[in-house]
Design goal:
alpha/beta; 12 helices; (S)-2-hydroxy-acid oxidase; FMN_HAD; 357 residues; 12% strand; two-stranded antiparallel ribbon; binds ligand FNR; FMN-dep_DH
Length: 357
């Protein structure tokens, strides 16, 4: 393939060529039968547009505001682990690319660069993603470090009381490096007998007793806004947080969970405007971004495409991925007759559940 991709999917092909199989599989894979993995992408393909014509679209403005921070377009970087498997500069390169595109990066607990390295890489608004560990002081210390290093919000990932069964990682006997962020905080004995060391790490460290009461515990520890990541049902809409992220963890946790886009509207209706709703899972096109916004998301987050950009072309690759999605969103807005993000409405899309008019 020509080495300059023309769309985000082509970065995946380059990443596959560039990476050792074990690492590519870690990034690309999902849980068990990977049903949800396919659905995350395919459910977008079943949504079509109701474009409007004869609207002056000579000036398109994609800017939006997330928790008070202005970003150039509603496309953010999702938290994903171990960027140094993809590129030696790891999350520092990703952070610089996100900053250059004037968007927000969420740094994963599993960052291969330290919180401090990412914080000092460049000026930008960043959020920190937290898991709750059995040893609560570990989460408390990570949070305190993120806060003192200028991170502006905490993303609590709530869909991982246990790690999903990612069979490619088990087959490949994936081993993960000791996280620099956890040095001196957590030491774990890896058990790689027939299983993934990552699985062993997760089962030894993650706290499966985490529950709704712990939101109050988290609030008592930080003044930062809290975004709850992993909501997939109206029943789990909790307005005691500052934002909700509709996500199935990129289909890496519960297989046969619904495609994220198929439940976005249910969650948005339950939230009823009380807090912003963000979205991730399967976004590969500017048209996907538009569809998620039309169904009520304030912004989307991108997981794998960012890593594929990083693996293929480092910081430049991540920048290109974000720029491509922004350019495609701009065109989609023009062709649907929307000049600003606020002009994108539910009436611009038709889902399978909608009656044909
Ligand atoms: C993830 N995701 C994730 N989520 C999280 O809260 N903490 C984490 O450390 C990780 N790590 C991680 C690693 C890798 C390799 C992937 C692919 C994903 C999930 C991520 O934040 C996001 O929900 C999905 O990646 C979104 O789906 P797409 O964009 O990858 O389809």
């Amino acid at each position: 393939m020509d080495s300059e991709p023309v769309n985000v999917r082509e970065f995946q092909t380059l990443a596959k060529e560039a990476l050792p199989k074990m690492h590519y599989d870690y990034y690309a894979g999902g849980a068990e039968d990977e049903h949800t993995l396919k659905e995350n992408v395919e459910a977008f393909q079943r949504i079509t547009f109701r474009p409007r014509i004869l609207i002056d679209v000579s000036n398109i403005n994609m800017e939006t505001t997330i928790l008070g921070y202005k970003i150039s377009a509603p496309v953010m970087v999702a938290p994903t682990g171990f960027h140094m498997y993809a590129h030696p500069e790891g999350e520092v390169a990703t952070a610089r690319a996100a900053a250059a595109c004037n968007t927000i990066m969420v740094l994963s607990f599993g960052s291969s660069c330290t919180i401090e390295e990412v914080a000092s890489s460049c000026e930008a608004v960043r959020f920190y993603q937290l898991y709750v560990y059995k040893q609560r002081y570990v989460s408390a210390q990570l949070l305190a470090r993120a806060e003192s290093n200028g991170f502006k919000a905490v993303v609590l990932t709530a869909d991982t009381p246990k790690l999903g069964r990612r069979e490619a990682d088990i087959r490949n006997k994936l081993t993960i490096p000791q996280s620099k962020n956890l040095e001196g905080l957590l030491s774990v004995e890896a058990d790689s007998k027939g299983g993934s060391d990552f699985g062993a790490f997760a089962s030894q460290t993650l706290d499966p007793s985490l529950n709704w009461k712990d939101i109050a515990w988290l609030k008592s520890m930080t003044k930062l806004p809290i975004l709850l990541k992993g909501v997939l049902t109206a029943e789990d809409v909790e307005v005691g947080v500052d934002a909700i992220i509709v996500s199935n963890h990129g289909a890496r946790q519960l297989d046969y969970a619904p495609a994220s886009i198929s439940v976005l509207e249910e969650v948005v209706q339950a939230v009823a405007g009380a807090v912003p709703v963000l979205f991730d899972g399967g976004v590969r096109r500017g048209t996907d971004v538009f569809k998620a916004l039309a169904l009520g998301a304030q912004a989307v987050m991108i997981g794998r495409p960012v890593i594929y950009g990083l693996a293929a072309k480092g910081e430049y690759g991540v920048k290109r991925v974000l720029e491509m999605l922004k350019d495609e969103l701009e065109l989609t807005m023009s062709l649907n007759g929307c000049c600003t993000i606020k002009h994108i409405t539910r009436n611009h899309v038709r889902t399978e559940g909608d009656k044909l008019r």
